Amino acid sequence: MTRRQLAELLALAALWGGSFLCMRLGAADFGPVALVFVRCAGAALLLLPVLLLRGEGAALRAHWRGVALVGLVNSAAPFVLFAAASLVLSAGLMAVFNATAPLWAAVVAWLGWRERLDAWRAAGLALGFAGVLGLSWDALALKTGGVLGPALAVAACLGATLLYGLAANLTRRRLAGVPPMALAAGSQLASALLLAVPAAALWPAEPPGLAAWGAALLLAFACTALAYVLYFRLIAQLGATKAISVTFLIPAFAMGWGALVLGERPSVAMLAACAVI
């Protein structure tokens, strides 16, 4: 990994760490589905003109089916799951669950594509999932009066990270060579189109406040548009396994953003589980 790639990895971790804070700030006003629609539509509006100016529209047209599938698996579905979980869980806690994505990527590669899993990797996976179990146990002790209870919120986070692991393998095996901008712009456009009707049906009756709109726009332009350009470029340069390792760095940034803006404090159990994962 070069210094530039390392810098991009850290920048991506900071952006995606901030995304959990933005979801916490926007989900209550918008609702999960409407918030994710704004996120994906805003990112698509920013990325598509850049794609066309770069002359890479043909790549998107040639691979639109695969890009649309990645949009569903890597954006629309997991974004909604995390946005729903943000109504219950802290930004830092969600980010620690998000750190399980490389574990799921390895499991999917083993089960779906028969990628070799030696004894050391198997032991690492077992240790990582032990951390997940401990973190889940700690999260289930939360007291909340929301519609979505802790158990469903934890399940939503783990479902989202499983989808991320699947998407990383699909991108690596079926979309190798596709320009990162085509992947980023096309996946967000596909996600916005998939969510348009559900978002219209679930649009909040009360107009979201300025803080919620600010969080949604920051989520769209910085935490999604810019972040996905970096992410797909890192996949192309480093491979799926190394690129998705960014999720190990995200919790530190998410905890920092959450503490700075919302006064969230990570528990000792959360920190221990994060270290184990």
Short description:
By secondary structure, the protein is an all-alpha fold.
Overview of the structural elements:
This protein has 277 residues and is mainly alpha-helical. It is built from 13 helices and no strands. The protein has helices at 3-30, 32-53, 57-62, 64-85, 91-98, 101-113, 119-139, 150-174, 180-201, 210-238, 240-244, 250-262, 268-276. The longest helix has 29 residues, at 210-238. The chain is globular.
Structural class label: mainly alpha
What is the average of the pLDDT values? Answer: 92
Task: Give the termini separation.
Answer: 22 Å
Largest β sheet strand count, sense and barrel closure: none
Order of helices and strands: HHHHHHHHHHHHH
Radius of gyration: 18 Å
Helix content: over 70%
- Low-pLDDT runs of 5+ residues are none
Which labels suit this protein?
277 residues; single chain; globular; mainly alpha
Task: Itemize the secondary structure elements and their pairings.
Blueprint lengths: L2 H28 L1 H22 L3 H6 L1 H22 L5 H8 L2 H13 L5 H21 L10 H25 L5 H22 L8 H29 L1 H5 L5 H13 L5 H9 L1
Helix pairs in contact: 1-2, 1-5, 1-10, 1-12, 2-4, 2-9, 2-10, 4-8, 4-9, 5-12, 6-8, 7-13, 9-10
